[in-house]
Design goal:
The chain has helices at about 15-30, 40-45, 80-90, 105-115, 140-160, 175-185, 200-210, 230-240, 240-245, 265-280, 300-305, 315-320; strands at about 5-10, 35-40, 50-55, 95-100, 120-125, 165-170, 190, 215-220, 245-250, 285-290, 295-300. The chain is an alpha/beta fold and about 325 residues long. It has 2 domains: about 5-140 and about 260-305, Rossmann fold (3-Layer(aba) Sandwich); about 140-255, Rossmann fold (3-Layer(aba) Sandwich). The strands form 2 sheets. A 7-stranded mixed beta sheet has the order 3-2-1-4-5-10-11, with helices on both faces. Strands 7-8-6-9 form a 4-stranded parallel beta sheet, sandwiched between helices. Helix 4 (about 105-115) links the parallel strand 4 and strand 5. The structure holds adenosine-5'-triphosphate.
Length: about 325
């Protein structure tokens, strides 16, 4: 019988992580379990920073971005010794199961804990949306809306000055955020890690935009694209004379992570958190809780970490039709 469950957040923080922590703690308490929070992700497991949490400890956090438990990158956890130490600390604290909230790297580490025999459940959370096993992950909706707000604002200034703007959005090697922000923001061109970019074509698209009487031209560039903001700006600077126009570039970076979670992220995270507790109650371990085809679902961590999530090429086609 499970009695003591711990939860941690790891990797890049994502808006909605707090809502997931809250749901895990409250659903666990409602089952009569003792609930624990691990501070600073895997680092806290290794240092034994595991503290009991009550329903009250997660009050007033659902609307806050970031994570009250803190997060950290932890190279020591990449070693077997580090992970064995983590398990020793979990056992010492009498923890029966662990909920791990995070993205790809985090779930890879989680799978390693599972392989060492510790009962774990993962929750899909990353603004990059690059995690197999969930069509959408916690934080994506908020990050997307922040990018969109920035694009809308840049459009205003772009129109006033008849300037072309490049906006770089996060997403590591996944173009989801850039693609969706580009479509929703009405970008003239989008560069993606999954699709090779011809910068001449981008320049031609911008040129045509002006010729067709558009007052602004926006390129949304994914940070992991072959032509991200830096590479694209370099291309335009080197070819300024020939192309006849210049561009301004804005890198959104971590601004995208910092917002208050949207209603969508809060509800998604609440559903994921409760389902993680249900999975533990069913003794279903070594799985990731995510959303597939609109329904909450679990996928084995082994499959999650060994399968690449593909970008929807129909959305790429749609973006091209609409530019
Ligand atoms: P995001 O992509 O949203 O930033 P993430 O969870 O992918 O989040 P990472 O920095 O890749 O973030 O991973 C977080 C932590 O997970 C790492 O610091 C490390 O402790 C652990 N981790 C990553 N990869 C592995 C691995 N192969 N084996 C064990 N642990 C890992």
């Amino acid at each position: 019988m499970t009695q003591r469950v711990a939860v941690l957040t790891s990797g890049g923080d994502a808006p909605g992580m707090n809502a997931a922590i809250r749901a895990v703690i409250r659903c666990g308490v409602s089952k009569g379990w003792q609930m624990y929070g691990v501070l600073h992700g895997y680092k806290g497991l290794i240092s034994g920073n595991i503290n009991q949490m009550t329903t009250r400890d997660v009050g007033g956090i659902i609307q806050r971005g970031g994570t009250i438990l803190g997060s950290a990158r932890c190279p020591e956890f990449m070693t077997v010794e580090g992970r064995k130490l983590a398990i020793r600390n979990l056992n010492q604290a009498g923890i029966d199961a662990l909920v791990v909230i995070g993205g790809n790297g985090t779930q890879t580490g989680n799978y390693e804990l599972h392989r060492l025999g510790f009962p774990v459940v993962g929750i899909a959370s990353t603004i990059d949306n690059d995690l197999f096993g969930s069509d959408i992950t916690i934080g994506v909706d908020t990050a997307l809306n922040i990018a969109l707000e920035a694009i809308d604002r840049l459009k205003v200034t772009a129109s006033s000055h008849q300037r072309a703007f490049i906006v770089e959005v996060m997403g590591r090697k996944c173009g989801y955020l850039a693609l969706m922000a580009g479509i929703a923001g009405g970008a003239e061109a989008i560069t993606l890690p999954e699709v090779p970019t011809n910068p001449e074509e981008v320049a031609q698209t911008l040129q045509l935009a002006y010729e067709h009487g558009k007052s602004h031209a926006i390129v949304v560039a994914a940070e992991g694209a072959d032509y991200n903001a830096a590479a694209l700006t370099e291309f335009f600077v080197s070819n300024k004379e020939r192309l006849g126009f210049s561009v301004r570039s804005t890198i959104l970076g971590h601004v995208q992570r910092g917002g208050n979670p949207s209603a969508y992220d809060r509800t998604l995270a609440s559903r994921f958190g409760c389902e993680a507790v249900e999975a533990i109650d069913r003794q279903e371990f070594g799985v990731l809780v995510g959303q597939l085809h609109g329904k909450i679902a679990t996928t084995p961590l082994e499959e999650v970490i060994n399968t690449k999530k593909e970008l929807d090429m129909d959305m790429v086609k749609l973006a091209r039709l609409l530019d």
